[in-house]
Design goal:
The chain is globular. It has 2 domains: 158 residues, HAD superfamily/HAD-like (Rossmann fold, 3-Layer(aba) Sandwich), CATH 3.40.50.1000; 60 residues. 47% of the residues lie in helices and 12% in strands. It is an alpha/beta fold. α2 runs antiparallel to α4.
């Protein structure tokens, strides 16, 4: 795993920070369980006359259910599922659990003069709701969320990452992405920018190493400390 000095050097060499939402900032489904949301989406599909593939019957991740709907060839179902997921995510944002030191990273980046954009496969409405409730709007006003009814554009597609970089008037090469999934790592690589893998579970360390993350941290506290050093 990369050492803290590499983290400092990476952050020092980039002007802007792109931050994934669910993981580095908060746990959006902490009190609004993701498996129940996934069940709700499957109900939408069935009510609209669609059939659920066997591999999706027990899928606990609502984003994967949404992603799968693109294979149905039924744009109407995709829109219905998207609408339901946006509503579920908005409700979940009200009880989302903040990630330890996630707030400090956002404020620290702002104070170090590094614009922040949140880039996520979650909906913009849910992200904006959470940021507002946590009084972080002044520090992280740029949000690049999921494009409505276009699950094909979710990460690892680089589109939302490139959109986030543009929102802070930065080239991809002048940004660094902090994310907690392989989709974040592969998306950043496709967009041409370095990535800090936030391994919030032990098994992710090896996964992110194999995927080629530039730096790996197991706590957002490491990122917060590096930003404080940059400010000094």
């Amino acid at each position: 795993m990369s050492q803290p000095e590499n983290l400092f050097q990476l952050l020092a060499g980039r002007g802007s920070i792109l931050l994934d939402f669910d993981g580095p900032v908060c746990s959006i489904f902490a009190q609004h369980p993701a498996p129940k949301v996934a069940d709700s989406l499957r109900t939408v599909v069935r009510d609209a006359g669609g059939e659920i593939a066997p591999e999706l019957v027990s899928e606990p991740d609502p984003l994967e259910v949404l992603r799968w709907t693109a294979r149905l060839g039924r744009p109407d179902i995709v829109r219905l599922v998207e609408t339901r997921l946006c509503a579920e995510e908005y409700a979940a944002s009200k009880t989302a659990r903040p990630t330890l030191y996630g707030r400090e990273v956002i404020v620290g980046a702002y104070e170090a003069g590094k614009p922040i954009a949140i880039v996520s496969n979650n909906s913009s409405g849910a992200i904006t709701s959470y940021v507002s409730r946590q009084r972080l709007s002044a520090y992280a006003s740029h949000v690049s969320g999921r494009t409505f009814a276009r699950p094909d554009l979710m990460k690892p597609n680089p589109e939302p990452i490139l959109r986030a970089a543009k929102s802070v008037d930065s080239s991809p090469a002048d940004c660094v992405l902090i994310g907690d999934s392989l989709a974040d790592i592969h998306g950043a690589q496709a967009a041409g920018l370095p990535v800090i893998g936030y391994a919030n579970r032990n098994e992710k360390v090896d996964l992110f190493t194999e995927a080629g993350a530039d730096v790996i941290v197991t706590t957002m506290a490491d990122v917060a400390r590096a930003l404080i050093e940059l400010k000094l």
